[in-house]
Amino acid sequence: MFLVPGSFSMDLIVTALKKIGSENSPGEIPVYLNNKFDLRQTQTAVVKDYQNLKIVYTGEAPMCAYTCSATAKCAPPPCSKGGISLKISMASGQTESGTEMTLYVGESKEAFKAMISLKDLENGVARLVVSADRPVPPPIPPTPIVPMCK
After folding, report:
1. One pLDDT digit (tens) per residue for the chain, 150 residues
2. Is the distance from CB of 130 to CB of 88 less than 8 angstroms?
3. Dihedral angle sign, alpha carbons of residues 111, 117, 121, 124
4. How far apart are CA 83 and CA 121, in angstroms?
């Protein structure tokens, strides 16, 4: 069998998809700290080197929020970039805690001591980066204390 540049073996593609599927839950995308990644609505990113922090793109946020008063003319503020709504969660033992946030292009917010930044939003695809000072170590299971003397 020969592989021509630009073509792929169907067996190779099926093997790769099975491997990807065995390492992650369906719909989950593995990502890593300080690396840009793209996320579409309803997709979940799992930050593998930050205790499997999960980020779910739940929807687009309004382009601009503004208020009108009786004395001021109603006009939107000058903005052209949109935003997204996210659900962020992290498991700790048997429990999972989470929070929700809205991010606009160019904005960063903290969740679980990690900064989540929305770098770009184009055609419903969000480009994000997760950063942290240091990865959160996995929980250490308790070990029994064994006496040294008899």
Report:
1. 454 555 555 555 545 544 444 455 667 999 999 999 999 999 999 999 998 999 999 998 876 555 555 565 555 555 556 899 999 999 876 677 899 999 999 999 999 999 999 999 999 899 999 999 865 566 666 777 777 776
2. no
3. negative
4. 7
Residue type, 99: T
Tokens of 143: 């070990």
What are the φ/ψ torsions at residue 101 (nearest 5 degrees)? Answer: -150, 160
Nearest to 98 by CA among 139, 145, 54: 54
Q: Alpha helices of the chain — where are they, by DSSP H?
A: 10-23
> How far, in Å, CA of 37 to CA of 102, rounded?
18
**Which segments of 25-135 are extended strands (E)?**
28-31, 37-40, 44-47, 53-61, 83-92, 95-104, 108-111, 114-122, 125-131
Under 8 Å between Cβ of 83 and 62: yes
Cα gap 54→137, rounded to integer Å? 16
Beta-carbon contacts of residue 21 (< 8 Å; ≥ 6 apart): none
